[in-house]
């Protein structure tokens, strides 16, 4: 059931257009604002409650719907629910559209267009970046987005679905990521305030939620890329920066495709980023998707045979 759900969700997600004002994100944002207004008092004793309502409550609602559908209508309807949830939480189009836009501009030799596309994607000034740095930024932002929008979601979905919890893991992971990003965003004068305690709690909770997922992504990158170099870069980075989750994904990517992503080469071995590395990263991501499909198919077959 897990394999079928994810395969259908990936096919549907690839077919949809780039979301403009994603209604799912809008609903999540309004939910976090409501929780903040009513529970984020700035007191430490309320911080954990506010985070639990922000992240755990939507996951529990998803689980309750899954169990109700499974109980009253059977597994086929529950699969449809899982596909709907995965369709809403997976996000290939969140980064693939922008990645393709920058890559096409670089292939055409239009560095200015590539900088403009990168600036729109990352929402920061990229006017002075040399071509090598554009490629480096695109690779780093792409693999981190692929992890947060696809591979991390698949990891948490798979783990909790194996224990009969349906698609709750996908919602839990995406809400934890969204809550951390929402709390840490730069505030405008008109923005609803967020307490320092809630920001710190959401960041610490996100580190723990993402800890296992980033290492699973790094391991898959190593399997489908250059294994020894990926593991060595991962190990060196972990020793130098033991609390940097994002760095684990970047280090594994750098080793897997043989490119420097830290700008100094002190941790990750490889050559300076070139436009050709963008195709290598695309191949790395899609091979990882295929590996996830094989992995989930094996798990689903084992459950059916067992």
| Unreliable residue stretches | none
Sum up the overall morphology in one term.
globular
Give the helix/strand class: mainly alpha
Q: H/E element string?
A: HHHHHHHHHHHH
Mean pLDDT: 85
Question: For the CA atoms, what is the radius of gyration?
Answer: 20 Å
Q: Tally the helices.
A: 12
- The strand count comes to 0
Task: Give your account of this protein's structure.
This protein is globular. It is built from twelve helices and no strands. It has 306 residues and is mostly helical. The longest helix has 32 residues, at 131-162. It has one domain (2-305). It is 78% helix and 0% strand. The mean pLDDT is 85.
In short:
The chain has 306 residues and is mainly α. The protein has one domain (2-305).
What is the topology?
Blueprint: H1 2-15, H2 23-39, H3 44-73, H4 75-89, H5 93-107, H6 111-122, H7 131-162, H8 168-184, H9 196-224, H10 227-240, H11 245-257, H12 276-305
Name some characteristics of this structure.
mainly alpha, 0% strand, 306 residues, 78% helix
